[in-house]
């Protein structure tokens, strides 16, 4: 199932789900993606937190060896993504904690 929802449609989809009577909504986030900036991550977190989901799951991009993505990573010189993983996790955790959400 393709559950990707473009950033600009997130709020409208979320509102439709809430209005349908579903009371336990989880949002899954990916971070550390190619071309994703720190500002992109902060904006996404602000938007997600403004929706007050019942649960947030976050996943850092993991680049597996011997995959097409690893080859693309090498060609596009995206090694900085791996190095920034800790920084991105820290930003994510601090944003959630500031909003009163546990990061267990």
Describe this structure in words.
With 104 residues, the chain is mostly helical. It has one domain (25-98). Helix content is 48%, strand content 12%. The protein contains 5 helices and 2 strands, in the order αβαβααα. It has a two-stranded parallel sheet. β1 (26-31), α2 and β2 (55-60) form a beta-alpha-beta unit. α2 runs parallel beside α5 (85-98). The protein is globular and about 45 Å long.
Q: Key features?
A:
104 residues, two-stranded parallel ribbon, single chain, 5 helices, mainly alpha
Quick overview of this protein structure:
The protein has five helices and two strands, in the order H-E-H-E-H-H-H.
- C-alpha termini separation: 27 Å
Give the strand order of the largest sheet, numbering strands 1, 2, ... along the chain.
Answer: 1-2
Largest sheet properties: 2 strands, parallel
The count of domains is 1
Strand content: 5-15%
């Amino acid at each position: 199932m393709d559950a990707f929802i473009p950033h600009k449609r997130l709020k409208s989809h979320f509102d439709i789900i809430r209005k349908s009577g579903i009371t336990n909504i989880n949002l899954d986030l990916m971070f550390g993606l190619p071309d994703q900036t720190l500002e992109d991550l902060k904006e996404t977190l602000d938007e997600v937190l403004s929706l007050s989901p019942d649960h947030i799951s976050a996943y850092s991009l993991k680049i597996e060896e011997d995959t097409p993505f690893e080859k693309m990573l090498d060609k596009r010189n995206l090694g900085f993504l791996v190095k920034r993983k800790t920084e991105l996790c820290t930003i994510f955790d601090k944003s959630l904690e500031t909003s009163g959400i546990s990061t267990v």
